[in-house]
Design brief:
This is Neurexin-4. With about 325 residues, the chain is an alpha+beta fold. The chain contains 5 helices and 15 strands. The strands form 2 sheets. Strands 1, 2, 3, 4, 5, 6, 7, 8 and 9 form a 9-stranded antiparallel beta sheet that branches. Strands 10-15-12-13-11-14 form a 6-stranded antiparallel beta sheet, covered by helices on one side. Helix 1 packs parallel to helix 4.
Length: about 325
């Protein structure tokens, strides 16, 4: 049986981080239909004694205690989280409404005949490095931390110059960089252009979140000239329901592998860290110590495990 204190913690973690934002994204013109799977999910969050008095007849039982009110707040929070929609994430992040200033676009080197401002898709030319060869890069600092969905490139319009293969590095601070890798763990090499003006789009797999991006030439034709666009959206624009979490009270046999122990000041940040780990499907947040423990559903013999019997944790829904 859940305790009053546990309900308070749950209200804080669910309500304070998500519900106020979700009110803005709910489509109230559509009626709410209570599907059986969602009723079961709500039931797991509400004390059995209160649930047994509730019938979906349009009438609610009279509320006599603060504890009962908290249960209903939890229920309403989960209703909103379950029905709020997930907006699009396919905006141009270099040029356009979410685009950057010219100062936010930099490069390893730049030739005087094709300055950095020509790196935009709207340019009739392109950026090109000072020297021929590979390893040159274009770098963009986005206006805010963003989720990246695709990279688009074009060659140089006035000369037969383009990047035919490239790799991608991302960063949150512009100092520490991480290469995008393929399924084998090697640096992923993306196909680039084969002519001057055809747009080549490479969609990014998994969750790629960054403040900075570098597109690095691996192979080129004549000279490594490039025009660049990156598609995605500012992370602040993503509805919290794009990655939803349900609170679960652990029971006997709930033993999960620990992927990573880190820190997070709230449930939303801990959920984001889990969301960015491909293998993470649940997490445990200690609100007293700000410890965020990322968990994996399957038990791996080489990893440390945690017994969640009687412990609240969050799972993807």
């Amino acid at each position: 049986m859940k305790t009053f204190q546990q309900d308070v913690v749950l209200v804080k973690t669910i309500w304070s981080r998500y519900v106020r934002r979700c009110f803005l994204s709910v489509n109230y013109s559509q009626p709410l239909s209570y599907r059986q799977s969602q009723i079961q999910q709500f039931q797991s969050l509400v004390s059995p004694s209160l649930w047994s008095r509730r019938r979906f007849t349009g009438h609610w039982p009279r509320i006599h205690t603060t504890e009962s009110m908290l249960h209903i707040v939890i229920l309403l929070s989960m209703v909103i989280l379950s029905f709020a929609g997930c907006g699009p994430c396919q905006y141009d992040l270099v040029t356009g409404p979410y685009g950057v200033s010219d100062d936010a676009i930099t490069a390893s080197t730049t030739h005087r005949d094709c300055p950095i401002v020509k790196a935009r898709f709207s340019s009739s030319r392109s950026w090109c490095p000072l020297y021929s060869g590979v390893g040159h890069f274009l770098q963009v600092e986005f206006r805010s931390v963003s989720m990246l969905k695709a990279i688009q490139t074009k060659g140089r319009e006035d000369y037969s110059q383009w990047v035919s293969l490239y790799s991608v590095n991302i960063s949150m601070d512009g100092i520490t960089w991480t290469s995008l890798s393929n399924s084998t763990g090697d640096v992923q090499v993306f196909p680039g252009n084969s002519d001057r003006n055809t747009v080549v789009t490479n969609e990014l797999e998994g969750t790629v979140i960054a403040k900075y991006i570098r597109v690095i030439s691996v192979s080129m034709h004549s000279h490594g000239s490039m025009r660049l666009e990156v598609q995605g959206c500012p992370y602040s624009e993503i509805s919290s329901t794009c990655h939803r979490w349900g609170a679960k009270l652990g029971s006997t046999g709930d033993v999960l592998s620990i992927l990573l122990d880190t820190d997070a000041s709230n449930q939303g940040l801990c959920g984001l860290k889990c969301y960015r780990q491909p293998e993470c499907d649940s997490f445990l947040l200690d609100v007293k110590s700000d410890q965020c423990r990322l968990l994996k559903g399957s038990v791996n013999g080489s990893q440390i495990t945690v017994d969640l019997d009687g412990v609240w944790y969050f799972v993807k829904i």
